[in-house]
Amino acid sequence: MPAHPKAPFATAQDAEDAFYDALDERNAEHMAAVWGEGPDIACLLPMHPLVFGEDVRGLWAPMFAAGAIDLQVRHLRWVVLGDLAIHYVQEWVNPPAGQRAPPPVYATNVFRRDAAGWQLVAHQNSPTPPPPGAMGGPGPAN
After folding, report:
1. Which residues are within 8 A (CB) of 53 and not within 5 positions of it... i.e. 6 or more apart?
2. pTM for the complete prediction?
3. Binning pLDDT at 50, 70 and 90, where does residue 86 land?
4. For the chain, which terminal residue's Cβ has fewer other Cβ atoms within 10 angstroms, N or C?
């Protein structure tokens, strides 16, 4: 596995910080080091196919080559169940000057702790729902 200057990650939050730092820095090697090993790790991004295993590490370099990813992250809820941690967050893309900001997306980050520390095993993004009434219905319940 590639090296990361902060690895091994002592907490799930350390691993999550490294994930978002790698996005901000567009560093595919650091991104690869955040992820766990094995065929069951998974990543699902909007408008991308679901990717498993070693293909997750290959997902990032083309995205980073396409340009900067400037995100703001808001933590909504953390759940820790022994050696498993689930972080629910909201991500906002900061647009280039003069462009309108897209709506935020919800993300779920799942981390697993093993003898080497905490690693990301699943990341999924989902667009936020439209405002109530925008689709002819009452909208989602909160």
Report:
1. 38, 39, 40, 41
2. 0.85
3. very high
4. C
Per-residue pLDDT at 4: 66
d(CA 35, CA 41): 8
Q: CATH number of the domain at 12-95+103-127, please?
A: 3.10.450.50
How is residue 43 written in tokens? 């990543």
Find all residues with CB under 8 Å of 59, minimum gap 6, and list them.
43, 45, 48, 51
Domain boundaries, given as residue ranges, for the chain: 12-95+103-127
Instruction: Give me the torsion for CA of 91, 93, 94, 97, rounded to 10°.
Output: -160
Handedness of CA 92, 90, 82, 11 (dihedral sign): positive
Q: Tell me the per-residue pLDDT of 89-122, one tens digit each, with 9 for 90 and over.
A: 999 888 878 888 888 999 999 999 999 899 999 9
Residues 6+ apart with CB under 8 A from 54: 39
Residue with tokens 């083309």: 62
Residue 38 falls in which region: left (phi positive, over 0), alpha (psi -120 to 50) or beta = left
